Amino acid sequence: MAKAPKYRFCAGPWNFSEGRDPYGPETRPAQTFDWKLQALKELGFDAMMFHDDDAVPEIDSKSPAQVLKEAKELKKRLDGEGLVAEMVAPRLWFHPNTVDGAYTNNDKRLRRYAIDRSKQAIDIAGVLGTDLIVLWLAREGSYLRESKNARRSVDLLVEAMDAMLTHNKKIRLAIEPKPNEPMDHAYIPTIGHALAVAQLTTAPARVGALIESAHAILAGLDPADEIDFAMAFGKLWSLHLNDQNGLKFDQDKPFGSANLRVAFNQVRALERNAYGRGGEFICFDVHPFRTTKPEHYLKHLSNSRDTFLRLVDKARSYPEKAAQALIADRNYQDLDQLVLNHLMGS
Known about the structure:
Elements: E1 9-11, H1 33-43, E2 47-51, H2 52-55, H3 64-81, E3 84-89, H4 108-128, E4 132-136, E5 141-142, H5 150-167, E6 172-176, E7 185-186, H6 191-198, E8 207-212, H7 213-218, H8 223-232, E9 236-241, H9 260-272, E10 282-284, H10 299-316, H11 320-328, H12 332-344
Parallel strand pairs: 1-2, 1-10, 2-3, 4-6, 6-8, 8-9, 9-10
Antiparallel strand pairs: 5-7
Helix pairs in contact: 3-4, 4-5, 8-9, 9-10
């Protein structure tokens, strides 16, 4: 097994959520961006990930020159806290122009808006010092199958990615797949779909993937298998660890909260593939429970990291020799109990 480097940790401004859900308002006061930067620093995290309008608020109301000016100011603030930008993602699912999709919108004028905004996100990333652009294709799907041509939509996705790859020859695109929500069905629901569509672009080597634990679970897949699959191609460039209690809405629970064994196997997959050796971060896309009090605002992040690090210890102390003997004997009953005993500390 290749030796993994020391892990580095990352979170985004949206991971300090205020508790609003579809059925009720906020339960905690909003915190300033500077508070969030300082909180990450105090937690010992190494990086922050950004949507384009996290980096430059009200981005659509500002000129390109003003956007880059504010991005440069953010870079100074990050440097002052000793943090780096992990990635930038164009937030294309909020805007009125993207109600019916961004890159796959039926309206050519609105597709152009999505591509132009993505190019601007790339420019912001360049100022912030990251080459990683994450594409969560949130509204690239349909509510009605008859409303769009899925074959044509694949071509439109490739056209958009080619435009981004041409705009800056140094950036990498990491596709973050999700099978549903907000769309009924998404065009790129799994890592396999993401890596397949990458091959249709003009620069396949610069198109990879970001895996989110909850999204894999929502697709009925095991996140550890998705990690192994992406890393078999050398294409896992970022990671959102969290947890998910079944096929519900996207819950973003703390890592290991719902299924510790599934979390353990994700860590094992990262360890055996030496994830992080190329500088990749462990990002936690988690939110505080709605019931969380303001004084416990950061616990979901610190608890996720603590669980991750304890599972790293469990992965490295796993009784591999005993496990292999049971596998050779096809004694999966005792292999099952060996894993449970290891996780329970016996």
